[in-house]
Amino acid sequence: MSNSQARRSEQAGIFHFFREMGSALIMALIAIVYVIQAFKIPTGSMEDSLLVGDFLLGLKFMYGAPILPFSQELGITTRFPAVTDPKAGDVIIFRYPGNDKKDYIKRCVAGPGSVVEVRGKSLIVDGKVVQTPPRGKYLNDGQLDEKITDFKPLKIPAKGDIIKTGDLQTREFLFLKHLIRQENPRSKVRAEFQLYLDGEFSNNQTIQMIDPYTRQGFRIAFGDLRFDHDDWTRLEDLLSYVKSSFSDREVEIKKLLYINDKPVNEYKVKYDNYFMMGDNRDNSLDSRYWGFLNRNYVKAKAFILYFSLDKQIPAWQLPVKIRWERIGKLIRSWDGIAGIPSTAN
Predict the structure, then answer these.
(1) Which of 166, 170, 201, 249 is deepest in the core (most CB within 10 A)?
(2) To 10 degrees, what angle do helices 170-183 and 232-245 make?
(3) Does position 300 have pLDDT exceeding 60, yes or no?
(4) Does one domain contain both 145 and 279?
(5) For the whole model, what pTM was predicted?
(6) Assigned domain for 91 exists
(7) What is the CA radius of gyration of the chain?
(8) Cα 95 to Cα 101: distance, rounded to the nearest angstrom
(9) pLDDT at position 338, please?
């Protein structure tokens, strides 16, 4: 073989190598963007169905992957057609409504149009008790806010519903704010609170507060208070404290919503919404606190565990640290509807 032929053969081999590598890389990128999503369980909110240290794969195409990479972050909501819509019982990976940069994983317990309530340890959907998933649990000594253990009936908005903003309770108000923000990621969505004392606008009225770090008292104007809580129970506690500070006067706190600085009197829902809860119901920051998961924020359906590490075992004991029995375990749906109407008062 001549030198020129050898060089051509070598060049062809290099070209073939990079072509194969490029094809593999492109296929991997397509899979990552449109097919699968890897997720690591960071907290115990899904115990014992999913454990801290579990690594799992979710299927993006099941609920319709975004057409363009990072389109959700850019506020573009167009997706490929879904194989199925989320339904009660599915374990879903989604963008956390309180922070777009975080992904959460919870179980869907109810879909659009359903009515959800919690009475003590009982989750009730459309008047029927929903059982805890087979490996789910409660904490016997768990101390939850009474607003959560006695979660009043709440209807989950469906696409096309019209919600009027006037006189909404604190929970419904904050949930609507989060819903609007999920559906309008490129818009500026803000809430405004106005204090009226004896019928007069009083946002400049000061209130005695306690610094949580120094424990020192200070006074601050109502208009300077921070109301940007993700958790409606904290917001309601703050508003209740303000009202109690003026117990000798007639107090009214008006709650207003704005989209791009335009007041919102009513809002037409663009997408279906879902109610999410952790299987470890006494140790889960979920829809009971931050509200509805909008269809626009759904990312993937949890599918299979591909690895699992026990964080309680030191790293140097690696073979023992790996939970071998969990590798390859499928993540199954569980609707939990007992079919027995609730008889609780």
Answers:
(1) 170
(2) 140
(3) yes
(4) yes
(5) 0.85
(6) yes
(7) 25
(8) 7
(9) 54
